[in-house]
């Protein structure tokens, strides 16, 4: 059984529990939630989705003592375009409470980084103040993917549709996903290969699709590599969480971009 299978099995248990709980009040109601779809178009620098990640199955403990609110405010002040909060408890030591607290502290779009298999999870993400949720194509049948995509969209929640290979990218395009994340990490083997972004981004022909390169990005050179294709943003977790100079790291990662990719990257 792969780690993704184990995570999904755990989510099935959690979903049954969520269905027995009352839905918390929407804590982010007072905020005007900015959309990634608008803010990631036509920018002049690489957009950074900065992640709050205490630990992970592939790396173990990263920063168990992190204060998610302090970290999110730091990301915002350094120019993050959005914040990703890992809300899974069992495998990443995150929580929906983290997201709720971050929502109160920052005005940026917030991605609920979890493993969605049921609409009830989208309700809880929305109630905590998420503006965008993740749908991992590898973890969902076509029917489930469509159901969750339509449900989230109908709720006014944006969807980051995550792919790792050509077949998944075809499914995301056929679904009509407007924001596609190319995960450089294979969630079954943990292997990271930044060339996944280059290979899969070229399959996207709609210039309005927002493309995000996810995982394994550590340096300016890595951004230049994934930016050979026309991507709009990068999702960075571990490197930011381990950095002791986050402002300098943002300067390194926020490379000028133009339509068609980073100038001179090829
Ligand atoms: O990070 C993992 O080990 C992992 C394992 C299984 C499923 C998902 C996993 N990570 C979620 C992510 O997609 C990353 O947190 C995100 O892309 C940031 O990656 P990184 O910059 O490499 O921390």
TrEMBL record:
Q: Which domain of life does this protein belong to?
A: Bacteria
Could you tell me what reaction this enzyme catalyses?
Answer: 1-(2-carboxyphenylamino)-1-deoxy-D-ribulose 5-phosphate + H(+) = (1S,2R)-1-C-(indol-3-yl)glycerol 3-phosphate + CO2 + H2O
Biochemical pathway: Amino-acid biosynthesis; L-tryptophan biosynthesis; L-tryptophan from chorismate: step 4/5
Pfam families on file: IGPS
**InterPro entries recorded:** Aldolase_TIM (IPR013785), Indole-3-glycerol_P_synth (IPR045186), Indole-3-glycerol_P_synth_dom (IPR013798), Indole-3-GlycerolPSynthase_CS (IPR001468), RibuloseP-bd_barrel (IPR011060)
Q: Which GO terms describe its molecular function?
A: indole-3-glycerol-phosphate synthase activity; phosphoribosylanthranilate isomerase activity
* Regions that span the bilayer: none
GO annotations under biological process? L-tryptophan biosynthetic process
Ranges where the Indole-3-glycerol phosphate synthase domain occurs: 4-252
Any keyword Lyase? yes
Q: Which UniProt keywords apply?
A: Amino-acid biosynthesis, Aromatic amino acid biosynthesis, Decarboxylase, Lyase, Tryptophan biosynthesis
Q: What Enzyme Commission number does this protein have?
A: 4.1.1.48
Q: Which family does it belong to?
A: Belongs to the TrpC family.
Protein name stated in the entry:
Indole-3-glycerol phosphate synthase
User: What organism is the protein native to?
Assistant: Virgibacillus salinus
User: Source gene?
Assistant: trpC
